[in-house]
Design brief:
Keywords: Cyclin. With 292 residues, the chain is mainly α. 53% of the residues lie in helices and 2% in strands. The longest helix has 20 residues.
Length: 292
């Protein structure tokens, strides 16, 4: 398989393309406005300034936050929002809180995220937060840290992570009858939608763990995830004009992100094959130049 995402063989001839359709009851103008608002919001919030003092402990904190979120049956999108709060709190040029308080910071971020964004899940009680803190923190401490966190975040709780964009894109998965999978035509895309979606979801978790992926906008990461997932399950072409239409990005704008994500996946989660790129450090990829 060729490596270059923009290689000519990865594109479908315009005459052969089938255009994705949407249910008639969906107001596509409203959807377009919603998506445009998401793009504007992420650009206004975009900030990438990794601090070495935080990166040393970030993976442990993110893992633990995700584990607690799973035990509390909190939706993934809310957990990802909590990690955004955590990054904003701790990714600043100052000393970390005492090690004994790091779990409390994680718990409070998750608690705030569930309060703000919860629709389909119950907000954990303060007693549950107390229990998951192994009873190390008093109820008064939890309340005090909650207020301090809200102030530190300037009460700006409405944030976008890549998972919010993938959820948007996956309402109509980019799978098409004229796609090829392992050399055979994908006649019924719906039959493969579940497998494909699970791979996209896995990539959102993978990128959440690695802070260096934050050098790209969430929508760029999400678009790259659509393509990387297609490649993982051996669907060609990797890039479709429909993806460009739905995401608003041309292939050159996601190329670096795609290769970094694919290389990271191959290095950490795949045995690899002869035609795959050599694993490279995500952090070594040039920083995404977002739109001004």
């Amino acid at each position: 398989m060729a490596l270059e995402l923009d290689c000519e063989e990865y594109f479908v001839d315009d005459a052969a393309m089938t255009t994705a359709t949407s249910p008639e009851d969906i107001d596509m103008e409203l959807v377009d406005d919603w998506y445009s608002s998401m793009l504007a919001q992420e650009r206004a919030q975009f900030h990438y300034a990794p601090q070495p003092h935080y990166l040393k402990v970030r993976l442990v904190l993110v893992d633990w936050t995700c584990d607690v979120g799973e035990e509390l049956d909190v939706p993934k999108s809310i957990v990802h929002t909590a990690v955004n709060y955590l990054d904003r709190l701790l990714n600043v040029p100052c000393a970390l809180p005492p090690q004994s308080k790091l779990q409390l910071v994680c718990l409070v971020c998750l608690w705030i995220a569930t309060k703000f964004a919860s629709v389909d899940c119950e907000v954990p009680s303060i007693e549950e937060i107390y229990a998951y803190g192994h009873q190390q923190y008093t109820l008064d401490e939890i309340k005090a840290y909650e207020m301090a966190t809200l102030k530190a975040l300037h009460w700006q709780l409405n944030v976008l992570q890549p998972i919010h964009f993938t959820e948007f894109y996956l309402t109509n998965p980019p799978l098409f009858p004229d796609d090829d999978i392992n050399g055979y035509q994908l006649a019924d895309p719906t039959a493969y939608a579940t497998v494909y979606t699970k791979h996209v979801e896995f990539l959102t978790e993978m990128c959440l763990q690695e802070h260096a992926f934050q050098q790209w906008l969430p929508s760029v990461l999400a678009t790259a995830m659509l393509c990387v997932a297609r490649r993982i399950v051996h669907i060609t072409p990797v890039w479709r004009e429909e993806i460009e239409i739905n995401s608003g990005y041309v292939v050159d704008e996601i190329q670096d992100c795609f290769h970094a994500m694919w290389s990271h996946y191959v290095h950490h989660f795949s045995k690899g094959t002869a035609d795959e790129p050599s694993p490279t450090s995500v952090a070594a990829v040039s920083q995404y130049q977002h739109h001004q």
